Amino acid sequence: MSNAVMDKPSVPEVIPTFTATLIIRRFDPDVDDEPRWQDFDVELYPTDRILDALHKIKWEQDGSLTFRRSCAHGVCGSDAMRINGKNRLACKTLIKDLDISQPIYVEAIKGLPLEKDLVVNMEPFFDSFKAVNPFLMASTTPEKGKERTQSPVERARFDDTTKCILCAACTSSCPVFWTDGQYFGPAAIVNAHRFIFDSRDDNAQVRLDILNDKEGVWRCRTTFNCTDACPRGIQVTQAIAEVKQAVLRGRP
Questions:
Q1: In angstroms, rounded to a whole number, what is the distance separating the alpha carbons of residues 250 and 88?
Q2: Contact of 58 with 65, CB cutoff 8 Å
Q3: Residue 2 clears pLDDT 70, i.e. is over it
Q4: For the whole model, what pTM was predicted?
Q5: How many CB atoms within 10 Å of residue 89?
Q6: Could you give the CA distance from residue 82 to residue 92 in angstroms, rounded to a whole number?
Q7: In 3D, which of 138, 110, 129 has the Cα closest to residue 190?
Q8: Would you call 42 exposed, middle or buried from its count of C-beta atoms within 10 A (0-12, 13-18, 19+)?
């Protein structure tokens, strides 16, 4: 006769929730003359992100709240916004990493035209990006069936700047960009760097000439805001400094 004793079923651990207050800078061009602040109380889990809180507000409290998001995993760059005064991705900012004893302030990124709530017009940003020719410009053709080869050392030279997801967090954190609508901005220079130092590219000089302009690399004041804001950890200020050095040398 068996003496086996059945184990009692385990009781799932209850994850505690808490209420956080989000104060969001709202703007509806059809109704508002100026942006206004509106607060929302949201029940959340510590593992929730700001994006989750915005979803709960939109789905449960105010369907008119407008913001961009896509992949929700820090890759698409759609949901860059200012959270407690710092540029961040809403999908990468955990509630538990913020001081929930105080209200959480959320607003659109600065320096770009505000369209509605947390959405800005990204066209000026992408115009600067396109102006630096962010694509491979090669004057030679590889052998049929072959690729353009590159050593690990050559690849490592520009590896950091390949990480850019065009979220505009760096550019919209730059005080020069806020005050000068003509400045290319950090993101455009980072993407130029990615090809200027690519050994497979044959037209680095074209990009150096574009950025050797009063609204190019020389407008950077080395405040490091861009580096601090980058959600991908790119050393943005260093990349800009390397492009400056290449301009002075006249070559990468």
A1: 36
A2: yes
A3: no
A4: 0.90
A5: 26
A6: 13
A7: 129
A8: buried
| pLDDT value for 235 | 98
pLDDT value of position 4: 60
Output the CA–CA distances (angstroms, integers) from residue 118 to 51, 65, 87, 238, in the order listed: 12, 8, 12, 30
Determine the Cα angle at 182 with ends 111 and 133, to 5°: 105
Dihedral, CA atoms, 225, 231, 236, 239, nearest 10 degrees?
180
Which 3 state secondary structure label does DSSP give 190?
A: helix
Residue with tokens 């090809």: 195
- What is the spatial distance between Cα 28 and Cα 36, in angstroms, rounded to a whole number? 9
Q: What is the DSSP string of 220-252?
A: -----HHHHH-TT---HHHHHHHHHHHHHHT--
For the chain, the average pLDDT equals 94
> Whole-angstrom Cα distance, residue 96 to residue 83?
14
Phi, psi of 23 (to 5 degrees): -110, 110
